Amino acid sequence: MATAKLMDYDKALELFEPVLGFEVHVELNTRTKMFSGAPNPAHEDFHAAEPNTLIAPVDLGLPGSLPVVNATAVRSSISLGLALGCSIAESSRFARKNYFYPDLGKNYQISQYDEPIAFEGSVEVELEDGTLVTIPIERAHMEEDAGKLTHMGGATGRIQGAEYSLVDYNRAGVPLVEIVTKPIFGAEHRAPEVAKAYIAAIRDIVRGLGISEARMERGNLRCDANVSLRPRGQEKLGTRTETKNVNSMRSVERAVRYEIQRQAQILADGGVIIQETRHWHEDTGTTSPGRPKSDADDYRYFPEPDLLPVEPARELVEELRAALPEQPIARRRRLKADWGFTDLEFQDVRNGGLIDVVAATIDAGSTPAAARKWWTGEITRVANAQERDVADLVSPQNVAALQQLVDAGTLTDKLARQVLEGVIAGEGSPQEVVDARGLAVVSDDGALIAAIDDAFAAQPDVLAKIKDGKVQAAGAVIGAVMKAMKGQADAARVRELILERAAQD
Q1: What is the rounded distance in angstroms from the CA atom of residue 198 to the CA atom of residue 123?
Q2: CA separation for the pair 190, 197 (Å, rounded)
Q3: Which residues have CB under 8 Å from 383's CB, separation 6+?
Q4: What is the distance, to the nearest Å, from the Cα of residue 217 to the centroid of all Cα atoms in its chain?
Q5: Distances (CA, A) of 135 to 194, 201, 239
């Protein structure tokens, strides 16, 4: 694949105005699928299930099978629409979106077209410096997910060059809400940052509602990023490209920046932009052509004849509106004040996606400072080393219990890290790991004094130095005692006992 020529980013923004748009797919964590009674694995890692085991006849498009709408998915979709500031349609309708692909057994997708459940909204997103940007929402509509293809025999794992493909229908029929923005103007140089902040805002909203895990690495949240450029002073919009299924917020940011630079160079050279989908390559930080982008007419939409319109009672809509949680921006500002964090401390928590686990740890009894220390420090380090999500390593309740053992003097910070290692390894709760490994701090002054006396006997000159007022010499004895106690002693208490023993002799 030839490397595209890129224009300098600042130069591109001098010549062209970027216009953004996003289509975000949110997998809902309902118990069953959108139109069948098959288990919905979206709240877990569906890759863990054997292929083609979480399916029903409707998911495969078998003759005679009929869809039935998941009522919980409808409620979740309404809640999300309300959280996005949308109006909720008194009547909305499903449609058939026709296109052939092997992971859609019936050769069409049940979606919504001209009658979505939610429409005309907006959401505020916050950039890292606190700047607020309003993103206009065109619609949020319900649909079903497709299955998953695994391309075999090629070098890249993509369909190009593969010898054959395997299809897994476990994901087919998982409930989705697709959130479509209107064109976003005015982002200018901060367009990549706006893109990242918008995806983060959607993630925070759906997690706050409790309707999705919203984990991009698992596909619970997927973003298609649209970018077009128009020359400065021109009213007509440029031709857009759609970079598909970008799987992290950082990648969304990078993909938008790359497309701005790529398109700017093509336009400056007198070329034209092809309206197409593009694939994002994480390893090279580039996009490559996918397929020509279809317009609505190409999908031959028509109303789904097997489903009635969705007509939610106004009382239900108002009930769901009253149950909406605090908006993410307001919540972040409240938590920052409640926890007493500096801007930098809170930014570390937010950038790591740790607000919810830190909050849960504090609710479980930890101090804010200790919760932040564990999650942004040792737990994040282990997660990065193991290439795992922090939330998969340890529960907030166990982190709070671990800190309580430190606060009680049962553990030192060093011992606590060993206990955390055991908890992550599945050895039990912090207390169970302490008991099993024998990691509690030695609190018996008699045992500590005996170790101190042994250390003085081995280093008689140290005792003389301490008596002469050179208390820093106590460090050598502390080290010897800690070694003898296998690190299971409180260094501060050992120091106190050393000075007491020196004063007695």
Answers
A1: 8
A2: 10
A3: 389, 390, 392, 393
A4: 7
A5: 9, 10, 21
**What amino acid occupies position 290?**
G
| Residue 269 per-residue DSSP state | T
Taken in order 345, 347, 349, 351, is the CA torsion positive or negative?
A: negative
Contacts of 491 (CB under 8 A, 6+ apart): 412, 478, 482
Average pLDDT over residues 453-478: 62
Structure confidence at residue 45 (pLDDT): 57
Q: CB within 8 A of 106, min separation 6: which ones?
A: 60, 61
* CB neighbour list of residue 347: distance below 8 Å, 6 or more residues apart: 128
For position 65, what pLDDT does the model report?
Answer: 95
Q: Helices 474-484 and 445-458 meet at what angle, rounded to 10?
A: 120
Residues in the chain: 505
Which two structure tokens, joined as six digits, stand for 491? 């260094």
Task: Please state the φ and ψ torsions of residue 327, each to the nearest 5 degrees.
Answer: -65, 140
Judged against a pLDDT cut of 80, whether residue 146 lies above it is answered with: yes
Question: 387 Cβ partners below 8 Å, 6+ apart?
Answer: none
Helical residues (DSSP H) of 210-342, grouped into ranges: 249-268, 314-322, 328-339
- pLDDT surpasses 60 at 356: yes
Say which residues have a Cβ less than 8 Å from residue 336's Cβ, sequence separation at least 6: 346
Instruction: Quote the radius of gyration of the chain (alpha carbons, Å).
Output: 29
Q: Choose among 332, 329, 359: nearest CA to 346.
A: 332
Span 1-24, mean pLDDT?
92
pLDDT digits (tens, 9 = 90+) for 267-285: 999 999 999 999 999 889 9
Report how far residue 63's alpha carbon sits from residue 43's, in angstroms, rounded to the nearest whole number: 29
| Continuous H helices in 220-327 | 249-268, 314-322
Cα separations (Å) of 33 from 69, 146, 191, 211, 332? 9, 12, 36, 13, 33
Indicate yes or no: pTM above 0.90. no
The residue behind tokens 């959607």 is: 202
Tokens encoding 312: 């939610």
Query: What was the pLDDT predicted at 42?
Result: 79
Q: Which residues contact 448 (CB under 8 A, 6 or more apart)?
A: 442, 481, 485, 489, 493, 494, 497
Over the stretch 377-387, which tens digit does the pLDDT of each residue have?
999 999 999 98
For residue 357, which of 366, 200, 216 has the smallest C-alpha distance?
366
Count Cα neighbours of 150 within 13 Å in the Cβ-side half-sphere.
Answer: 10
What is the three-class DSSP state of 158?
A: coil
Higher local confidence (pLDDT), 483 or 222: 222
